[in-house]
Amino acid sequence: MWPAGKLLETSMFFICVGMTVTNAPAQQVVVSIPAPGPTEQIDHFIAQDWADREIEPAARCSDRDFVRRLYLDLAGRVPTAQETDVFLEDQREDKRQHLVDTLLQSEDHVHHLADVLDALLMGRTDEGKYAERAANHWRSYLEEFVRQNRPWNKVAAEILLARPENQSERGAVWYLYEQNNNHQAIAESIAPFFFGLRIECAQCHDHMIVDEIKQSDYWGLVAFFNRGKNTKTKLGPRVVESAIGGFSEFADLTGSSYPNLLSFLGSPPLNEKRPAAGQDQEDVDTLYVSGKPSDAPRVPKFSRRQAFIEQVVTGNRRIALAMVNRVWALLMGRGIVHPFDEMDSMHPPSHPDLLDELTNHFISSGYKMRGLIRSIVLSRAYQLSSRQPPGVEDPASFAWALERPLTAEQMARSVQLAVRGKFNNDAPLLHAFRQQFRDVLPDNFVAPVADALYLSNHPALDEFIRASNAPNHLRAQTLQQPTHSKRIELLFNTIFHRPPAASEQKAITDYLEQRESDLGPAIDQVVWSMLTSAEFRLNH
Amino acid sequence: MNQRPNTSSTCGSPEHAVHRRLFLQGSMAAGAASVASFNGLFSIPAAAEQAKRQGKKCILLWLCGAPSQFETWDPKPGTSTSGPFRAIPTNLPGIHISQLMPRCATIMDKLAVIRSMKTEPSEHFQGIDVLTRGDKPRPPFTRPILGSVIAQQLGDLDSPVPQFVLLDPCPEGNEFKAFKSGNWAGWLGAEYGPVRAGGKYSIPNLGRLDSISELDHQDRETLRAFLSRKYENDRRSEAASSHNAAFQRVAGLMSCAPLFDLDQLPPADRERYGPGAFAQHALQARHLIENGSTFVMVANGMPWDNHVFQHEMHQMLVPELDNVLFQLITDLEDRGLLEDTLVIAMGEFGRTPWLNEARGRDHYPNAWSMAMSGAGIRGGVVHGATDKLGRNVVEGHTDNRQLFATIFRALGIEPDQEYDLPGLPTFRRVEEDAQAVEEVLL
Amino acid sequence: MSEATKTLTLKKTQDWKLPTSVLDAALADDENAMIAGCMDGVYRLQFEPHQEELLYQHESYVSSVGLLKENQIVSAGYDGGLRWFDVEQRKLLRTTRAHDFWSWDMSVSADRSRIASVTGQYLAGSYKYEPQSEKEPSLKVFAADSGDLLHQLPHIPSTQAVAISPDNRFVAAGNLMGEVRVFDLDNGQMAANWTTPDFTSWGIIKSHCYLGGIFDLQFTPDSQSLLLCGMGPMRDPMAGNGRQLWQRWDWKKETPTLLDQTHQGQSGEGLMETLAIHPRSEHFAMGGRLRGGDWNLALFDLDSGDRIASAKTGFRITRVQYTADGKSLFVAGTQGQPKPKKDDSPLPPFGRVERYEIG
Q: Which of A321, B72, B315, B318 is the most buried (most CB within 10 A)?
């Protein structure tokens, strides 16, 4: 554990300069200093692990690498050539921190994080359902969560209770509502996103490998939500909760059956009187109180959803742990627990103390996402080169920056920016890409052949490049350059944010020289080849 | 919902890229002066690899979900747990199989059946892992799946036809779906992963865009490959290697699109194999093998997992399997291909002798059966035995390692060979010096 | 639930075990014995004094049993055979090979003059695994006394349930795909046919094929409508979690119409395999397996369709039958097979018969 409030001054020093502790002088002086911030804790625990493993991490990444990576991770897009130049020319010592703080305040960050949370929480879907998510204020609710840096525990409770009392919360209903009264699907979605656990296999039997996940957890979680029913009200869609019903039994593989008690993850089963088999309960008004506002649907006096919030969600450390691990995974390429939503006894954390401390910090700072993200991207591990150091094989060491494919939205915005200099979050290209590139946070990246075929033979990207024929678009700008060499430089600086290497200059010059007679389409070809190359497709 | 795969991590080794990297350096030295020379970048050197190739191939009928041994190869007539189906004699004296397999009963002299499989995992995901890779996982390293090993060892990398094909029309499939979205090729590298096709879920975007000429199509891909490989090599990037491997498939796939079109198979053959998706894809597997694929895995979701409706499902699935095996083996023999083509039919474990309340049989790895025929396999052998009710193996105990040693030996691949994985622990194709089942080998 | 409907109770008063699964059963006329069709043969289970006797066997499981005149019984089996047996003399009277495949279900007419049996193996008939057309007649009707074949009638395999109307004029059979065919017993002409999709699952998730279908059917006492039972559709049939479903159809309409079905909120999950109608038409009983919910045996008001009683038996029910006075219900079925400890040790008994008082 990190010694809170006390630190060896010398080791602090050596962490700062990036040397290993083994070089520390023999004489160590203990001094009292303020508790270290989360970034320092990350640096400490990660470096300690490197020392324990006796591995040398990758070098610090270049400013060019950093600016692209950070824009992708925080703003959901590549930087423009101009934004890159501004950063490269910034002479301040702490310019990386400045860029982090600027991007965290940007609207682009709001859209990007909302994209990611939506995909992870609700899942990818068809365009019709995406439109419904927007029309029913789910999307704007997520954006507001990010924009206002609202506390995650509060937002989680709003989403799970789905009983908005004012306009600004109304979008919270849509998470439960979209699942259309499928209470098992609701349980199977809540467990991984809010609690970092996969419980699907506990539907039919206690988890065979993970002892702590019981069949009673699965059916208990279902029971907390099984009195909800989608209802269209004057106030909009609501998941109206009944005061009766929802009692059933589940059978295990041997045929023995058990009552679905209101319990999840070892919470003591709630004391709710079960009617005898075959005895029907009467749904009388006295079981309810009126809703808020007054024209909202009535609310049961004993609300299972309310009980879930109070007994299972509120104060549950897992709510924080799951979010910390997920945000870490988003930024670092894999979770401290991997896979990030299987935080069970079969999947121990690679850095347990770090996960613990980050979670403590997340909780004590009021469950604020922005601070958590900031603390990670300012860490040394985040800012390593993506070149894997020789002899280091385990990605769980975080000894190099793990490459990740761009999400559909990152890819769509970045392609637009590269080719047209600006982007639109509602562009047809974005709609097309999110139907194809569905992964947001794969456990490991295996490029699908289907994606390669899509980029090669589907019209979406090809037509977008061809249609980018305005004077301020990349093709016209490139054609204006006096020489092939200058043209290639412009293409590389715009798309890859770096000058071309000599071999690249030569190969593409050779190609353009053969196509002198019809240079516009040839430039489109080069643009396609760059946009579909690994360098563009990956966040590195 | 989000298509998040549920798998263990990758091995993280970039070393598989070495031979391609050396080649690329050589080709770069020659320069990229013309469009024609770009195309040289597509090919991968066969070089000395050719020497060890014996032209052997393999079809795996992957009976995912796990079939019942009692309703297939190891019936227990007259016992309390036998189920309602009878046993019938075969063309091997004294050997009986389920009445649901009358056609296989006539070609038992060409089949080797192992009735004494005993493995460990009793859940699908872990069972699929062990029975397709040959061994338990050892995170963070990922052992390549059987098809990847065989494609790498025996495949013709110059062929435009995919060397490892998975035919599976089912887009869902619980644990098998999760498994399919994982890393199949493991430390061999993504280029040895499967191309997936099958049914209506067949390969989309296989045709070249009308808006672009064949020449332009090739040019831009050549440029893309050149840029991406430079990136891959400069960075030792495994992600880029995977990205490039995927694109490398595109040209080959486009050229052999007709092979993936069921409608182009001869109608008489289609009728003989039977109309179901599994049968049609088994025929397509034969077609792919004839046209240059090395390993074809045929699956149809995981239909064999009959915890409920066991007899109702097996009355349909087993006769289909019976006919498919019969047609495939006799076809391959008629075409002179059986000697070089290994046919394997198995799932990830067996089913319980006892029937559950829901008229089903549950998972059972303790004693189960599988069958093989063709290349390197001695026909007419039934290896091992189980006790009266089929609870335990009493003779010829065979585990996953021994099975894989047998499969590799049948195909002329050395089971004990170490993988060449600099920087990784020592891994062998089959661990612990497990011995092949000699009885079923030629 | 409508206010007029009175609720009832089901109270278990007696239980018996049989060595193997009871797949069908018929209450003897004196109501002191059950003829039980089991995995390993036909049993006579006498209640008072308790006595259990294996009468005879088929070559495979027994799927159905029925009572005939003069103390005879008839049984059908997974061997495709029908067997007539004289209980008094303990003598097998006749064996007829009715089908090449197994007999899924057999019914005896109310006047005990006719026997109907259904068969059919589900084999892949298309890429999507729609069933192949029949290879043998799916429905056969025999004379109960002579064993003569009276009709062989077409259906689509697998034809899983059969019933003869109380007026002995019609025979109805339901199949895997939810198709019901009703034939006139006088001339063998098809009198009605329709398909209900609500009992059949196509496995989207794991198994691209069909499962489920109609598992029992019964004419109402006026022969005007038909009750069907089974399990509602599932994305993954192997989960076995479709809703416990009955439907009531007016089959005599030009286009048969659905009159009623399990009411919303009154079903759990599980396959329902058996229906019985109260002797004075007060209600009907349905039983099967509990997969989710809190009952696998229930009584429904025959008019309103409301569930008026339910119980959980702890085993899969294969047959329910009222006593003649309508005050009791016999329930037969099976637990899962126990795991055998040794090869030669007999399995503990897992067939079940129970008696419930209706209060």
A: B72
pLDDT digits (tens, 9 = 90+) for A212-266: 888 899 999 999 999 999 999 999 999 999 999 988 888 776 667 888 899 998 8
> E strand or H helix at A456, and its extent?
helix A449-457
Asked if B172's CB is within 8 angstroms of C207's CB, the reply is no
The DSSP code sequence of A180-236 is TT-HHHHHHHHHHHHHS---GGGGTSS-SS-TT--HHHHHHHHHHHTTEEEEEETTE
The three-class DSSP label of residue B296 is strand
Distance from CA of A184 to the nearest CA of C (A): 12
What ranges in B309-438 are assigned the alpha helix state H? 310-334, 400-410
Question: How far is the alpha carbon of C189 from chain A, nearest alpha carbon, in Å?
Answer: 43
Residue B68 CB partners (closer than 8 Å, separation 6+)? B83, B304, B306, B310, B314, B350, B351, B361
Model pLDDT for residues C214-250, shown as the tens digit of each residue: 999 999 999 999 999 999 999 888 888 999 999 999 9
Tokens of A238: 């609501």
Ordered by start, the domain boundaries in chain C are: 10-338+349-358
Instruction: Report the alpha-carbon distance of residue C356 to residue C6 in Å, rounded.
Output: 18
CB-based contact A248 C9, cutoff 8 Å: no
Domain A404-540 in CATH 3.40.50 = no
Decide if pLDDT at A525 tops 90. Answer: yes
pLDDT tens digits along A482-494: 999 999 999 999 9
Q: From the CA of B247, how many Å to the nearest CA of chain A?
A: 5
Burial B152-174 (b: 16+ CB within 10 A, else e): bbbbbbeeebbbbbbbbbbebbb
Domains of chain B: 53-202+261-440 (3.40.720.10)
Helix (H, G, I), strand (E, B) or coil at A510: helix
* C-alpha distance from residue B297 to each of A507, B288, B370, B371 (Å): 40, 11, 15, 15
DSSP 3-state of A373: helix
Identify whether the C-beta of residue C286 lies closer than 8 Å to the C-beta of residue C293.
no
Using CA atoms, how far apart are residues A51 and B426, in angstroms rounded to an integer?
24
Indicate the helix (H) or strand (E) that contains A78.
none
C275-288 residues labelled b (16+ CB within 10 A) or e (exposed): bbbbeeebbbbbbb
What is the pLDDT at residue A14?
32
Query: Distance between CA B417 and CA C121 in Å, rounded?
Result: 48
The three-state secondary structure class of A103 is helix
At residue A429, the pLDDT reads 97
* Residues linked to residue C73 through DSSP beta bridges, in sequence order: C67, C85
Residues A353, A336 contacting (CB under 8 angstroms) = no
Whether C330 and C321 have beta carbons less than 8 Å apart is answered as yes
ipTM > 0.90 (yes/no): yes
Tokens matching residue C253: 């309409």
Pick among C206, C241, C294 to test the A interface (most A CBs inside 10 A): C294
Question: Over 90: is that where the pLDDT of A189 sits?
Answer: yes
User: What is the pLDDT averaged over residues C294-317?
Assistant: 96
Query: From residue C32, how far is each of C44, C274, C327 by CA, in Å?
Result: 10, 22, 15
In angstroms, rounded to a whole number, what is the distance separating the alpha carbons of residues B133 and B119? 13
User: Six-digit token pair at A497?
Assistant: 């944010």
**Residue B178 in contact with partner chain A when CB distance is under 8 A:** no
Q: Give chain C's end-to-end CA distance (angstroms, integer).
A: 19
Q: Inform me whether the C-beta atom of residue C338 falls under 8 Å from chain B C-beta atoms.
A: yes
pLDDT confidence of residue B6: 31
Q: Which residues does chain C have within 8 Å of residue A203's beta carbon, measured at their own beta carbons?
A: 239
CATH number of this structure's domain C10-338+349-358, picked from the four choices 2.40.400.10, 2.130.10.10, 3.30.565.10, 3.40.50.300: 2.130.10.10
